[in-house]
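Give me the fold.
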Amino acid sequence: MSLIEYEGRQIELPNEITSNDEKLLEVLLPYFPELSEATIERKTGQPIKIQYGLLKAWEDLKLQKQEDSFLCQYLCV
């Protein structure tokens, strides 16, 4: 079994479903149609995280800010 995190919810699903992003979304989409544009993040030893909408946009923005800050350290001297 694998643990899925989505909007503060935790859902446990069989590994046969969670091992493939397409299968996972195929199972979840009838219940959560907003996930059609979701991203799935996997890190060893942690629940599988599913993000979409504003939460995904916020995570993308934080990542871009980190990358810009890193680049500026080397290019803005």
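The CA atoms of residues 54 and 64 lie 15 Å apart.
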